Sequence to fold (545 residues):
Amino acid sequence: MSSAPDARIDNHGRATLWLASGTVISRVTGFLSAIILARTIGTVGLGADAFTVANSLPNNIYILIAGGVLNAVLVPQIVRAARAPDGGLSYINKLVTLAIVMLGGATVILTAAVPLVVAIYGVSYIGTPIITLAIAFGLWCMPQIFFYGLYTVLGEVLNARKMFGPFTWAPIINNVVAIGGMFVFMALFGADPSGTMEAGMWGPAQVAVLAGSATLGVLGQALVLTLFWRRAGLSFKFDFNWRGVGLRSAGRASTGVLGIMIAGQIAFIITTNVMLGADIGDASVNVLKLSWLVFVLPHSIITVSITTAHFTTMSQHAISADLPAVQRDFSEIVRTVALPLVLAMCGVMVLSMPLARLFAENREQAGALALVIVGQMAWLIFYTLIFVAQRTFYALGNARAPLIFFTGQYALQSVFSVIAGLTVPSHYLAFALALAQGIAMMLTAPFALYWLGKKLGVGLDGRRVSRTLLACLGAGAGASLVGWLLTTGMGANAEVGFGATTQGSVVTMVVVGLVMSTLYLTILWLLRLPELRTMAEPVLKRLRA
Fold:
């Protein structure tokens, strides 16, 4: 008979595998969507940057007004409400009703205010063609705010009921619809992979097809979650009686998260305005977004999946004031995440050039994108540590500490970005902004971890966590050296030859990825890393049977 801890780990493993599978497919289709978009309107140029600004606004503003608040507050609040006789159903209906009303009102107001909002994100370029085109795109994209909010509310309620899959798999619908819209665009108006379309070539029909299909995809992503509520034992009806069910405590808990969102958006606005200063044809806003898409891929597949699978349990431990158990949860998450995450980080850096060729029209564009990818990916481990620390604080009901250290991080990023804008040549500006963001993370992570250790009072299991991180980084360095030599030898970093083609890039990534993975895991096995042996034990048992 399995012990309780073994059963808990097995449940977490199954949940993590299910989440990771959905995230992998979601991110792969998201990658495919980004590649097709690059082949549709290019990676640089007026259309690419204007659409990137407009299509990013709904998500950024949604995060500012509700997203982070809902993510941080919903699960712990619903876990607490589940102790009620009705299993928390009354609380859920009231909370969802409130969210729908607030999101609906905000969406109507912000859609009407698109010209003002776009002007804020591009204040230095008001009256230029890029802002005019971004406003046209924005009028179609801004309604996404409501559907992003609905997706988060419905999904987090399902997560709190330990039904993790739908929330993770739903974005696939978004990506499929968006890809379909791009194919329709190319069929009707042709493709512009070099990004040379001028403002006058973008008519209402082109704007409607591209931006309208993007919004339609977000709508589908949200509505599909309603199909799973009955399976989770839920039935929704509007309930406008919001008093007396603890919503005030949710509001208090969300104050710190809202502050983080405001600080983050200020930093984003500053970065966007600095980045729009790059010359047309140089890496700019869209390149920075593409590199960020690559950066968050391993984070989403690995870190978010593992942390989400543990978060409800961690919240239960925190509610019970079992701080040693919270420490064990934190340590288990970081050590479990580190093993695959470091391999992904090293692999993407080594393969940045062949990866960038999938998006870019030519070698120059690929080189610019690859440089920015390396500039961001180098800091992934710090981003992960801050993320896990933040989620642990939220489980403990403490939003004040993350507010302070994130505000400091965004302030540093903003200062470094402005300095880069004033001193760095246009050709390297995107790379400099990636470094600015990463250095701010590196300086923030130790402070956040120290504060969390003090809050727990039992430390962070630092010896085991450090040993795992150092072993993974050492193995990653050895695998990276071999991977870089192999990548160069296959011609993937050259200007011409098979390795420099799209097909050659794919072959290189497959071959080098397999070699690096094998070497990395072999080194960790020889180092007797406990986490690897724990993961490998079920496979070894099957092979012995």
Observations:
- Residues 4-41 form the longest helix (38 residues).
- Residues 1-10 have pLDDT under 50 and may be disordered.
- The CA atoms of residues 413 and 437 lie 5 Å apart.
